[in-house]
Amino acid sequence: MGQDFAATLCDADRKKYRRYALFSCLGGCVAEVVVDTNVLIILYQKYLGAENSKSMFATAMSGLASVLLLIPFAGITDKIGLKKAAWQSCIWAFVAFMIMGGAPWIFSDSIASTIVLIALFMYGLTRPLYAAAWFPYMDNFLLPKERAGFFSGMRFFYTLQNAALILFLGQVLVRFEAPVWLLQLTLLLAGALQLVRYYFMAQLPVNPDESKDKEKYNVLKALNISIKNSPLVGFSIYRSMLGFAMASVMPLTYIYMKTTLKLPDSLIVYVTVAGMFGSVLGYSLAGWFIRRYGSKCTILVSHLTYIVAPFILLSSIFFSNIYIMLGLFIAGDFVLGIISAIWGVQSSAEMLALARPGNKVMAMAFCGTITAIGGAVSRIFTSVALGAGFFAATWQWGEVYGTWYHGLIIVFSLLNMLFTILLLVVPAVVPEHEDYYNP
After folding, report:
1. I need a labelling partner for 70 at 20 to 30 A (CA). Which of 178, 221, 311, 416 fits?
2. In contact, 250 and 275? CB cutoff 8 Å
3. Which of 233, 206, 239, 225 has the alpha carbon at shortest distance from 359?
4. C-alpha pair distances (Å), 409 with each of 20, 202, 247, 251, 405
């Protein structure tokens, strides 16, 4: 078992492996931030001539791949081992980013944005394989009491690093009128750093028992164990619905700022940086907050904040002054950054706590897949809604004038309030159930 193996390591070794894991994360997470913060991909697609719906759909590529492949790749990871899975993930991610960065040089303007979309999906295919290996790797050297502190510290450093990167890009966008080359170089750098990620992952320990009984491994049996783990299922469903309500909020905000308000790219990047510095603050507080107030309070506060934050963005509807609107966008993204960081640390620790020994890889994949469904469906729905014109370009309610953006934010805010009922299936919130079944 991962925990049993971690307990056999001395403190010095576990500290060394935590350092290697941090370096691996710092190298590889640049690619994730480029994709997951959405703003760089949206700007890149806009420079390549993509429409709003296509730009929004591009942000769904990674989540869509996770939905399709996380569970099958968990079986592959258990079959081929953690090291081989990590190598395959990193090398193909490297190739995908080389294609993304080089697309405008290699392909004509008419198809470059489509090639980038395909490469994004290709990168998305590598992430489930990486995710299937990452958490079991962590379980090999982390004791249960070390999880929250490690995840909090790791994410603090990688968010700080990437906030500095995005802030630098924002400064350059101010100085240069045609920054496509800068976005290309960022994509190429993100790809090259995937090789750094693998180098340090290869230094991490693997449980010697991991290689046993590979030929007897049964994916369906492992999946069945996860499905019958009702606390894990309940937590996964909650994460999925929360993801559905929140995944499109900030990408929509960036598109609205770019296409409707016509704000310069530098200001859009600054809003993103505000969210990232919010994450830095959140990660610096996460370990202390979880230890001080416990899992139940952390989850309840996170959900309440997820309800409040979109209304900060929505309040921009009452103002016409662009600087006030910009301030509200910055405040909303900053608050979302803080709570997303705290929730992310709590969520990671909760997944490891709910996964049954001997079924870690599949349990992580199962929870990740259910979670990814929410985010992917949210962004695909939003993309279709934008493309088909489901929401009026402008509308009026009394003295208030709104746009398609405000309509979508209202929908997602109401859904988040509705999903509060799902807190009842989260084990940390309601830890004891008296099940009864008499067919």
Report:
1. 416
2. yes
3. 225
4. 40, 43, 11, 11, 6
Which pair of structure tokens corresponds to residue 155?
Answer: 């994410």
pLDDT in tens, 225-283: 889 888 899 999 999 999 999 988 888 888 888 888 888 877 887 888 888 889 889 98
Q: Is residue 436 in a domain?
A: no
DSSP H helix total and E strand total for the chain:
16, 2
d(CA 255, CA 317) in angstroms, rounded, equals 16
> Which band of pLDDT confidence, cut at 50, 70 and 90, is reported for residue 436?
very low
Task: Tell me what the pLDDT averaged over the chain comes to.
Answer: 82
Cα separations (Å) of 23 from 124, 161, 198? 22, 12, 10
| Residue 391: strand, helix, or coil | coil
DSSP character string of 407-426: HHHHHHHHHHHHGGGGGGG-
Q: Tokens for 247?
A: 């995944």
> What's the pTM value of the predicted model, to 2 decimals?
0.72
Contacts 24+ apart (CB under 8 A), 287-294: 287/148, 287/149, 287/152, 287/153, 287/345, 289/342, 290/148, 290/152, 290/342, 290/345, 290/346, 290/349, 291/148
Closest CA to 137 of 213, 202, 187: 202
Compute the distance between CA of residue 365 and CA of residue 225 in angstroms, rounded to an integer.
12
| Interacting residues of 277 by C-beta distance below 8 A, sequence separation 6+ | 163, 334, 337
What's the total number of domains in the chain?
1
For residue 12, the one-letter residue type is: A
End-to-end CA distance of the chain: 36
CATH number for the domain that contains residue 11: 1.20.1250.20
The answer to whether 6 and 141 have CB atoms below 8 angstroms apart is: yes
Residue numbers of the domain that contains 242: 2-206+218-425
In this structure, how many other beta carbons lie within 10 angstroms of the beta carbon of residue 436?
Answer: 5
pLDDT of residue 176: 62
Query: Is 437 part of any domain?
Result: no
